[in-house]
């Protein structure tokens, strides 16, 4: 495949050297197009040696071959890594004041960007608006990850690792193994109201469900995300032409929407953390200490949504459940997972160990995937997008 790798002026450019090496070792023909600022971090000789092609930033070289548009016309994929806040703004605005800009305007190939910047810059409203614009235009985004940044800071903004960018690129280059498949994914955690102020809830951020939706869309699926109390920052990762998002709050609302959306779905994935119980009575007014005494909250069990979806599934439909456990050891983890899989009647079950420092509200995850009959169908760990990829591999295998 003919791939153009654009490199912009960020410290993460050193990681892109490894990405280019991985692409060339994979048999791809790679042309590197750096910006002038990018060459302050990694020089021209390195890019030429690793790609085996001459490198320039100028639109005024090789004019006879109309190089400033020819690169984009010939590309089968364009990757920009790192994509700084400034470069993202320029791409969104359609600016073409260098060779990378003209290449991006001239290409009709898929474009994949890997943002890299400080957390404050990533969260800035201007950057988020630019990312949203690019996603609406069909540009694919991988990352950024949450981790250590230049200068000792930490937070969202770290460029995804080369292997993860490679996986995203391969998904775009290969025929989608989920093309034409209709998918419904639940994400987040339900909140059961006690009064207008308080609720019973859980610590699920929705990141794993969102990663599952993004991965499914990247592999060609038509995706609906039923998001239970998922923040706008997390939902930013599912701004994609093939993804629609439906927001819900409590378990009863999640159940209603999931049952409706599952009617037309080929694969149903229940990744949301659903409250097992809800208050029998919900106060119309805030419960106060001044009212006297300690309130007693009577609970009633919520419906087992995934069991209901499994019982109602039509022929050929796959239902996937998640189980978050706090076991004493791996044997207990697997025993509890197999028991849940059997009780709920689902096709696959993904189980992960959670705790104060793992699972919920983390950028990474580690799971075991159980196929029909409780047989192991895979083990995955790493970023939640990497885990999502492994889960879809198991689902595709089962289909």
Automatic annotation (TrEMBL):
- Quote the NCBIfam families the UniProt record gives: coaBC_dfp
For activity, the cofactor(s) needed are:
Mg(2+); FMN
**Which protein family is it in?**
In the N-terminal section; belongs to the HFCD (homo-oligomeric flavin containing Cys decarboxylase) superfamily.
DNA/pantothenate metabolism flavoprotein C-terminal domain boundaries? 178-397
Which Gene3D superfamilies does the protein's record reference? CoaB-like, Flavin prenyltransferase-like
Q: Using the UniProt annotation, give all residue ranges assigned to the region (Phosphopantothenate--cysteine ligase).
A: 183-399
Origin species, per record, is Microbacterium algeriense
Q: Which InterPro entries match?
A: CoaB-like_sf, CoaBC, DNA/pantothenate-metab_flavo_C, Flavin_trans-like, Flavoprotein
User: Where does the Flavoprotein domain lie?
Assistant: 1-168
This entry's Gene Ontology molecular function terms read: phosphopantothenate--cysteine ligase activity; phosphopantothenoylcysteine decarboxylase activity
Q: Where does CTP bind?
A: 276, 286, 322, 340, 344
Q: What does this protein do?
A: Catalyzes two sequential steps in the biosynthesis of coenzyme A. In the first step cysteine is conjugated to 4'-phosphopantothenate to form 4-phosphopantothenoylcysteine. In the second step the latter compound is decarboxylated to form 4'-phosphopantotheine.
- Ranges where the record places region Phosphopantothenoylcysteine decarboxylase: 1-182
E.C. designation(s) = 4.1.1.36, 6.3.2.5
Per the annotation, how and in what number is the cofactor bound?
Binds 1 FMN per subunit.
- The reply to whether Lyase figures as a keyword in the UniProt entry is yes
Classification via SUPFAM superfamilies: CoaB-like, Homo-oligomeric flavin-containing Cys decarboxylases, HFCD
Any matching Pfam family: Flavoprotein
The keyword Magnesium is annotated on this UniProt entry: yes
Full protein name: Coenzyme A biosynthesis bifunctional protein CoaBC
To which pathway does this protein belong? Cofactor biosynthesis; coenzyme A biosynthesis; CoA from (R)-pantothenate: step 3/5; Cofactor biosynthesis; coenzyme A biosynthesis; CoA from (R)-pantothenate: step 2/5
User: Catalyses which reaction?
Assistant: N-[(R)-4-phosphopantothenoyl]-L-cysteine + H(+) = (R)-4'-phosphopantetheine + CO2; (R)-4'-phosphopantothenate + L-cysteine + CTP = N-[(R)-4-phosphopantothenoyl]-L-cysteine + CMP + diphosphate + H(+)
The record's keywords, sorted A to Z, are: Decarboxylase, Flavoprotein, FMN, Ligase, Lyase, Magnesium, Metal-binding, Multifunctional enzyme
């Amino acid at each position: 495949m003919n791939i153009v790798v654009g490199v912009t002026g960020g410290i993460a450019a050193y990681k892109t050297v490894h990405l280019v090496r991985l692409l060339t070792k994979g048999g791809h023909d790679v042309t590197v197009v750096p910006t002038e600022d990018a060459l302050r971090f990694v020089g021209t000789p390195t890019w030429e040696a690793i790609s085996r092609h001459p490198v320039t930033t100028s639109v005024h070289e090789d004019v006879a071959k109309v190089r400033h548009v020819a690169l984009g016309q010939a590309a089968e994929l364009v990757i920009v890594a790192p994509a700084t806040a400034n470069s993202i703004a320029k791409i969104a605005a359609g600016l073409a004041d260098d060779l990378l800009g003209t290449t991006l305007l001239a290409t009709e190939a898929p474009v994949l960007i890997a943002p890299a910047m400080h957390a404050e810059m990533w969260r800035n409203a201007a950057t988020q608006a630019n990312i949203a614009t690019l996603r609406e235009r069909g540009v694919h985004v991988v990352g950024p990850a949450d981790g250590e940044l230049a200068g000792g800071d930490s937070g969202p903004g770290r460029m995804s690792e080369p292997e993860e960018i490679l996986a995203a690129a391969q998904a775009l280059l290969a025929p989608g193994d989920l093309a034409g498949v209709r998918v419904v994914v639940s994400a987040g955690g339900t909140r059961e109201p006690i009064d207008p102020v308080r609720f019973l809830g859980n610590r699920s951020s929705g990141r794993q469900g969102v990663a599952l939706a993004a991965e499914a869309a990247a592999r060609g699926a038509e995706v609906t995300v039923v998001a239970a109390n998922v923040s706008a920052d997390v939902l930013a990762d599912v701004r994609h032409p093939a993804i629609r998002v439906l927001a819900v709050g409590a378990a009863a609302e999640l159940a209603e929407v999931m049952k409706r959306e599952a009617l037309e779905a080929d694969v149903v994935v229940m990744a949301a953390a659903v409250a097992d119980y809800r208050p029998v009575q919900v106060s119309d007014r805030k419960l106060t200490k001044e009212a006297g005494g300690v309130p007693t909250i009577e609970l009633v069990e919520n419906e087992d949504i995934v069991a209901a979806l499994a019982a109602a599934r039509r022929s050929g439909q796959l239902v996937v459940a998640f189980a978050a456990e706090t076991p004493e050891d791996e044997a207990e983890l697997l025993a509890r997972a197999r028991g849940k899989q059997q009780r709920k009647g689902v096709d696959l079950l993904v189980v992960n160990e959670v705790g104060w420092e793992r699972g919920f509200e983390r950028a990474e995850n580690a799971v075991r995937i159980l196929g029909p009959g409780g047989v192991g169908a895979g083990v995955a760990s790493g970023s939640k997008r990497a885990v999502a990829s492994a889960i879809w591999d198991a689902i595709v295998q089962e289909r």
